[in-house]
Amino acid sequence: MITVLPVLKIIGSVLLWVLAIVAALLLIVLFVPVCYRCAGTSEDPEPHEDPDLDKVKENLSGYFSFSWLFGFVRGGISYPDDPAFKVKILWFTVTGRNKPGKKKKEKNKNKNVRRASSEKSTDTENGADAESKSETSDTSPESEHKSLFGNIISKLQGIYDKIKKVFANTGYYVGILQSDEFKSAFAKARKQIVRLIRAVAPHKWSVNGTVGAGDPEKTGKIMGITGMAYPLVLNHVNIRPEFMNYQMDIKAAAKGRIMIFTVVAVAMTIYFDKDIKRIIRMFKKEA
């Protein structure tokens, strides 16, 4: 009994240290925010009379990058320079690595496939001609028309059955939407979604440049949409209109932070809410 107690103490202390480390890691994951940055540019400095989509595509560029725990985990993607999404832990690339010898293997594989296909093609040319003749002799235009007509009828029948089922259950779904349970569940879900959007949305962002649709009316509509969202885009958007010509010279940038705890809290709240679960079951009942 005397020899067992020291062993139990050692095991207990080890378990406490493990639990402490796990708890510390969990707190770090939940409460250390993920910082992100993104930017995009469409370079079109000179207005022109005719739209040139190829030129717009060539002048598009952008990037997205993120970092966590002072750069311990980081990554991003850049277009058109580096379109592969990469994630790095310290100096090691986890995803988006270019494996050595991969291109050579693909080239050799393509060569082997071409050789095999060329060999098979020489052996099957004569047989293919004979088979095509027999198939054309066996299949008549009338049978082809009948099979095509049958496929069309079956597809139309399936669409009709789905529409009929939807109309039959319309009253049921309308009753759910008008119920107090749905209103309560929708209010709760909306509150959590707004919370999630605020947590994910960038705290700094800007859009600057010149936009021209080649027509004063169309350009005016674009500016009208910007004016309608004026309270939301104040001090963020500065777009100059070009009424007579085409032009798409815009620079946009944003950065923000995402707290994992907020995302997990929103997901758990929605998942375990009884009213939301009840509404989902009611919708699935007649689906």
Protein model, in words:
This protein has 10 helices and 8 strands. By secondary structure, it is an alpha+beta fold. The chain has a domain at 32-98 and 172-285. The protein has helices spanning 4-31, 53-58, 102-138, 141-168, 170-177, 180-200, 216-228, 230-233, 260-272, 274-285; strands at residues 34-42, 60-68, 73-79, 82-89, 92-95, 204-213, 237-241, 246-258. Helix 6 (180-200) crosses helix 10. Strands 5-4-3-2-1-8-6-7 form an 8-stranded mixed beta sheet. A hairpin with a 2-residue loop joins strand 4 and strand 5 (92-95). The model is unreliable at 100-107 and 130-138 (pLDDT under 50).
Going across the biggest sheet, name each strand in turn: 5-4-3-2-1-8-6-7
Low-confidence stretches: 100-107, 130-138
Assign a percent range to the helix content.
55-70%
Shape: extended
Supply Rg: 31 Å
Alpha-beta content class: alpha+beta
> Count of helical segments?
10
Report the mean per-residue pLDDT as an integer: 81
Largest sheet: 8 strands, mixed
Please indicate the percent range of residues in DSSP E strands (runs of 2 or more): 15-25%
- Compute the separation of the termini in Å: 65 Å
Number of strands: 8
What is the string of SSEs from the N terminus onward? HEHEEEEHHHHEHHEEHH
